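dumping this here so i dont lose it
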């Protein structure tokens, strides 16, 4: 140990040679020092750059050579320890942020702030390849045993590239924060990534955990389960087939066709070769595992059956469905034992405790209910998730319940002694919907899979994420843990099933509960994650014309925020006082009397804080009173990207306000209700206590807003002026809106602070429009409660993301023109929408 002194300026980079005897250090003044680490003495120093700092250092493991990257974009190769110049390479236009030699020492890779990754035959001063990234390259590492490069960028991309072919091999993840460092472990089986926000991620790589990949299904696999002896795996997919895989065999799996029975969940019957399925057709079927014939059909539910759970000690099956009911069945007789309508919305998941004395259900009403078995009496209702709860799991000792949700969070609930109504821990890190949580066999770890394309391992006691077990190119859909706790099965959107071994090299995990009191909540530092969507893979087919990206890239959120800073006015805290005043008025519940002041406050707040949920709530109230349903439809979609600042607002809980918005949007604007043969009748009460029916025009209900547009107007101050769109005629609203969507998407610049809102009587240029009627019922993609994600791109424009109504259908008005339609990351249709016409499309 010792302190090495010599630099006159701050040290910017250090590197250690392969034997650990020599340390190189570079400073902001362009100087490099070489140090003898045994004697803690300086060997040599030299000022290598007259201007700029040292940005990267790398030793050659085969020769006594040091590569130095400078702020001017040049690379110098110098002898060690003399620091004599051997050669110089110049190709980067900005500072060389990272560089590394391969293990043979004949190839050097450099990454720069200019976004270029260059592979060099450095001795012959030749570029072997050059790859351009959208963002600055912040770090790179070469795999210790394979010709692969891990690359991190300032835009949060984490990718693996071929060293010699310059081909992307894997897109590990897309973070919202910049990557600062990437590294392989010594044997190349794990990758470590560090982010600018301080979080560190450990990824399984190579074949360290991977045992085999199972392929055969023609559509994505949606449910998995291991047999009791852990030797077989059963899978069900959207191709209406069930397959049983012998894990110790290389033979093809046994395939069972389900006919019209579209399976959502499949489970082995405990202690048997037989299996059970739950389907969209409202039935639960027990099947003979030998010949695939149905043994018994259990009919009770009035809608799709979402999940199945078996009692650990009795021949009893639990089913839950979209009809908001749970039901217990006697497997021997096939008779219904007990049922109950337990939730306000559909039940999505269930789990039975290990001792069989209780069970849990959860779903779209955001609540988790714990019930007594066999009485079926509720024990407690647990609330905390902000979106639908998708998965539940009891710990092996029954003292804890894990829940995962569409809000991207995992909660751990303490069940022993007095049950706490607040989660014991919140595990944050996933960037999209949680599809499955599973406790390890000893209960000390938790496995989670998500649509953010990752499977993660967490320590239960600390809530710490231990590592990322699997990073995929598409969303992960289903998972199962073998009964012996040694195998993990995962499925993705590419119809693959992966068998992984549970990691056995983790240091001894702590006991599950420790000393935390029931009310304690541990919040982890949020790890930024992927921006994946339900569209799945972004590697869509590019075999059509006009698919090149526009040269002018939109400004980043940070650039937009900088651009939108007021030109003259000084920053102040008056908006906080406005928020507090608005909170008081909302608390008073006298909207009719205070609406003018409330609307004024809300508009002022949104100019400064465009994602203020309470302000949107206020304007929705105002639009209802004014019967301004065009504005109301826009506001109800914008709230999906808004937040409630609980520091300033306490008039309502976030769960209540989200429920209000969801119900209001689906009741008024979702057209699936009428398409199912129902008559929609909307009545509103005015401030005089009179209730009158309301008719909505087609334009009101057919206008849809792309997610990218909504994100921008709710994240950048003055990006959007709501007053331009209030109380307009339908045709003028439509013309202004399509023009504004194009402006925001193409230019992405906020309005000037001095701009005045448009006059109500002012008219903009009329935009020719047509109607797209789209049916996605048969589209092979993940569907969220009947809502299917899809993308549209008008020729010459950018991709825009939308969702269908709850019946996988949508009718929407669009500007006339040529379009591309993308579903699940793949372009499925091209069409031309002629002004004044309707086009009907169906995707299978």
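and the seq i came up w/
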């Amino acid at each position: 140990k010792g302190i090495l002194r010599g630099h006159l300026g701050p040290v910017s980079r250090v590197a250690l040679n392969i034997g650990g005897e020599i340390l190189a250090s570079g400073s902001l003044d362009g100087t490099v020092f070489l140090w003898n680490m045994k004697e803690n003495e300086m060997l040599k120093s030299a000022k290598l750059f007259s201007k700029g700092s040292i940005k990267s250092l790398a030793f050659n493991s085969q020769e006594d050579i040091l590569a130095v990257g400078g702020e001017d974009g040049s690379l110098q190769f110098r002898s060690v320890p003399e620091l004599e110049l051997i050669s110089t390479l110049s190709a980067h236009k900005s500072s060389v942020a990272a560089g590394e030699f391969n293990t043979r020492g004949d190839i050097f890779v450099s990454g720069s702030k200019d976004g270029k990754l260059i592979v060099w035959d450095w001795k012959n001063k030749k570029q072997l390849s050059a790859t351009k990234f959208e963002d600055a390259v912040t770090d790179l590492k070469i795999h210790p045993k394979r010709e692969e490069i891990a690359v991190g960028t300032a835009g949060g991309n984490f990718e693996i590239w071929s060293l010699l072919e310059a081909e992307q091999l894997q897109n590990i993840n897309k973070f919202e924060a910049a990557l600062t460092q990437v590294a392989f472990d010594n044997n190349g089986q794990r990758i470590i990534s560090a982010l600018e926000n301080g979080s560190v991620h450990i990824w399984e790589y190579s074949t360290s955990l991977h045992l085999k990949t199972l392929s055969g299904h023609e559509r994505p696999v949606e449910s998995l389960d291991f047999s009791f002896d852990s030797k077989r795996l059963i899978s069900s997919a959207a191709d209406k087939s069930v397959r049983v895989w012998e894990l110790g065999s290389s033979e093809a799996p046994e395939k069972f066709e389900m006919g019209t029975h579209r399976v959502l969940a499949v489970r082995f019957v405990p202690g048997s070769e037989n299996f059970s399925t739950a389907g969209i057709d409202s039935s639960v079927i027990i099947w003979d595992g030998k010949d695939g014939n149905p043994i018994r059909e259990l009919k009770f539910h009035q809608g799709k059956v979402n999940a199945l759970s078996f009692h650990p000690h009795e021949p009893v099956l639990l089913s839950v469905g979209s009809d908001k009911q749970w039901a217990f069945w006697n497997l021997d007789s096939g008779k219904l034992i007990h049922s109950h309508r337990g939730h306000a919305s559909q039940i999505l998941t269930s789990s039975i405790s290990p001792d069989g004395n209780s069970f849990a259900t959860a779903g779209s009403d955001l609540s988790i209910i714990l019930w007594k078995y066999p009485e079926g009496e509720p024990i407690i209702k647990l609330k905390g998730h902000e979106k639908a709860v998708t998965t539940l799991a009891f710990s092996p000792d029954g003292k804890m319940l894990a829940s995962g949700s569409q809000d991207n969070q995992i909660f751990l609930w303490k069940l022993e002694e007095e049950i706490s109504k607040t989660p014991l821990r919140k595990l944050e890190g996933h960037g999209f919907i949680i599809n499955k949580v599973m406790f390890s066999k000893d209960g000390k770890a938790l496995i989670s899979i998500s649509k953010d394309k990752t499977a993660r391992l967490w320590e239960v006691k600390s809530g710490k994420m231990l590592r990322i077990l699997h990073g995929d190119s598409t969303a992960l859909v289903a998972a199962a843990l073998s009964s012996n706790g040694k195998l993990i099965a995962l499925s993705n959107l590419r119809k693959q099933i992966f068998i992984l071994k549970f990691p056995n090299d983790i240091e001894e995990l702590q006991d599950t509960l420790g000393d935390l009191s029931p009310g304690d909540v541990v919040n982890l530092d949020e790890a930024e994650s992927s921006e994946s969507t339900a569209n799945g893979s972004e590697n869509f087919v590019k075999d059509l014309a006009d698919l090149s990206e526009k040269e002018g890239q939109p400004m980043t959120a940070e650039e937009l925020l900088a651009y939108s800073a007021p030109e003259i006015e000084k920053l102040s805290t008056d908006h906080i006082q406005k928020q507090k005043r608005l909170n008081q008025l909302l608390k008073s519940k006298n909207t009719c009397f205070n609406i003018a002041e409330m609307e004024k406050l809300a508009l002022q707040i949104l100019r400064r804080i465009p994602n203020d949920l309470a302000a949107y709530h206020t304007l929705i109230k105002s639009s209802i009173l004014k019967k301004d349903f065009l504005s109301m439809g826009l506001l109800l979609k914008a709230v999906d990207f808004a937040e409630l600042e609980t520091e300033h607002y306490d008039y309502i809980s976030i769960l209540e306000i989200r429920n209000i918005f969801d119900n209001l949007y689906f009741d008024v604007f979702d057209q699936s209700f009428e398409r199912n043969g129902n008559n929609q009748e909307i009545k509103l009460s005015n401030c005089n206590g009179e209730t009158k029916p309301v008719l909505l025009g087609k334009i009101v209900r057919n206008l849809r807003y792309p997610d990218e547009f909504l994100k921008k107007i709710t994240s950048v101050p003055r990006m959007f002026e709501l007053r331009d769109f209030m109380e307009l005629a339908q045709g003028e609203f439509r013309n202004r809106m399509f023009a504004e969507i194009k402006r925001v998407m193409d230019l992405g610049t906020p309005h000037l602070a001095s701009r005045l809102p448009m006059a109500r009587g002012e008219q903009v240029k009329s935009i020719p429009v047509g109607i797209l009627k789209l049916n996605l019922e048969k589209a092979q993609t993940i569907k969220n409660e009947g809502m299917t994600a899809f993308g549209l791109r008008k020729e010459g424009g950018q991709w825009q993301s939308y969702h269908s109504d709850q019946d996988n259908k949508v009718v929407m008005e669009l500007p006339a023109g040529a379009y591309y339609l993308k579903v699940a990351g793949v372009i499925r249709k091209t069409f031309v929408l002629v002004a004044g016409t309707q086009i009907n499309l169906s995707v299978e």
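The chain has four domains: 11-204, 210-523, 564-746, 769-842.
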